[in-house]
Amino acid sequence: MHDQIKSLEDTLLEAGLGLPKFLVPKDGIDPRRWAVIACDQYTSNPDYWNKVMNFIGKEPSTARLILPEAFLNQEPELRIEQIHHTMLDYKMKRVVRELKPGFILQERTLPSGKKRHGLIVALDLSRYDHNPGSVSLIRPSEETIVERLKYRKMARQDATLETSHAIVFYDDPQHQVLKPVMNGSQGKVYDTDLMMNAGHVTGFHVKDERMLRDIADAFRNLKETAKHHGQEHPMLYVIGDGNHSLAAARPLAYHRFGPLVKNALRRYAMVELVNIHDEGVEFFPIHRFVHAVETNKYLDSVKNYFGAEIRSGYTTLAQAQEAASQSSKDHLAVPFTDGNGHGFMSMRKVPAVLFMDSFHAFFKDQAKKDWIEYIHGDAALEQYAKKNNGLGFVFPKIEKKDFFNHVRIHGTMPHKAFSVGHADDKAFYFALRYL
Predict the structure, then answer these.
(1) Coil, helix or strand at residue 1
(2) Residue of 236, 252, 11 whose CA lies nearest to 125
(3) CA distance from start to end of the chain
(4) 3-state class of 124 per DSSP?
(5) Whole-model pTM?
(6) Residue 70 CB partners (closer than 8 Å, separation 6+)
(7) CA 195 to chain centre
(8) If DSSP states are collapsed to H, E and C, what string results for 179-223?
(9) Cα-trace Rg, the chain
């Protein structure tokens, strides 16, 4: 049996996977208070996180194992120290129980009612490279901002537990990977509504060796398919959410153990693998608000840089968006608002990602005092523009059918190029893993 397990580990490793032992809260722990949303959500809304802390009270919760980005300017080093202390406390008090080696099939019911299915696994960090021009098996979808890694590295450095909000995509149009587990009977290890009306989540433990082998074989088949399509260095996984978390984890894995130690816990990162063809996966744009600019002067610069035509004078942003949608199919129309005036710029049509690349190059050429706020949602952008001095742009949507091809051909997208669902659709922390 020991030789069989070793063989299974080797099979999984070929697909960039480990064989983890996950942890879930023991019976008696309130799952609604235990599970909280990804730490990089509601960054400009600390009230959301204050409501979370009020809701969980003194109960055990993953909220005490993460550093919400909304509080990065509030003694982050002290908060990280408290996080590490809580991890040891939860371990000593046996707040969690360890499952047998395997994966977790997770079904997430979104607030919209749609369901998203994922497989929580341990991904091999030695097969991941976030640097420009990466040809690794696992690749980032967006550029890595080095300044954003400091506190993530600090949090992971002395952590004894790992939880994750990372969503990593794979390209499986025939849905081969999840067939073995969707058709089989798995033991349910959690099943709960989520706080703040964020839907529901259910987890099933996948520990049957035959099923694990079938999953590994399905991933290896996807890898071989990529080779047959001319990829000299096949790309099997692309990080959707959690790019910076994995970028922070990778050097720590190498530093402590080196890439060839198969069973080293820190060689792996806990992620949720999601088929980009899953019906619960939706991409939404993330808009830009440029602070401290004068509208007309900035639009003149935009016009000259992009060779764009500027149309303005609309009463609301919605009116500008409607007019933009009626523009020529040969042009890309990008609505804008400063809270009082609304319009859109029209330019030669290019793919959404290439426009984003150009916009960020343009932004870097402008005054150093300018800075960008990233805004989710049209209404949120219009409200933000009314309260702040600057100019907001409604960015175009990236089509998920183009996602893998873009990363394979062009590499990473600009920072905050897209959002996987709305804010409350993001991953919630639930399962853990020892480090």
Answers:
(1) coil
(2) 252
(3) 25
(4) strand
(5) 0.90
(6) 42, 43, 44, 45, 46, 48, 49
(7) 20
(8) HHHHCCCCEEEEEEECHHHCCEEEEEEECCHHHHHHHHHHHHHHH
(9) 23
Residues paired with residue 106 on neighbouring β-strands, in sequence order? 118, 203
- HEC-encoded secondary structure of 324-373: HHCCCCCEEEEEEECCCCEEEEEEECCCHHHHHHHHHHHHHHCCCCCCEE
Please check the confidence at residue 103 and state whether its pLDDT lies above 70: yes
How are beta strands 268-275 and 167-170 bridged, if at all?
parallel
Would you tell me how many other CB atoms lie within 10 Å of the CB of residue 141? 22
Helix (H, G, I), strand (E, B) or coil at 300: helix
Q: What is the overall mean pLDDT for the chain?
A: 90
Question: DSSP labels for 37-77?
Answer: E-TTSSTT-HHHHHHHHHHHTTS--GGGGS--GGGTTS-HH
Q: Helix, strand or coil for residue 268?
A: strand
Placement of tokens 């079904």 in the chain: 107
Which token pair is 332?
């890309």
With beta carbons less than 8 A apart as the criterion, state whether 63 and 56 touch: yes
Q: What pLDDT sits at residue 194? A: 98
200-244 pLDDT tens trace:
999 999 999 999 999 999 999 998 887 766 677 889 999 999 999
Beta bridge partners of 103: 206
pLDDT at 1 over 50: no
Question: Degrees (nearest 5) of the Cα angle 66, 68, 71?
Answer: 125
Angle formed at CA 186 by CA 181 and CA 192, multiple of 5 degrees: 110
**Do 431 and 104 form a contact (C-beta atoms < 8 A)?**
yes
Please give the DSSP secondary-structure letter assigned to residue 424: G
Exposed, middle or buried by CB within 10 Å (0-12, 13-18, 19+), for 297?
exposed
Cβ neighbors of 152 (< 8 A, separation 6 or more) are 244, 245, 247, 248, 249
What number of residues does the chain have? 435
Distance CA(428)–CA(34), nearest Å, equals 10
**Residue at token pair 């900035």:** 298
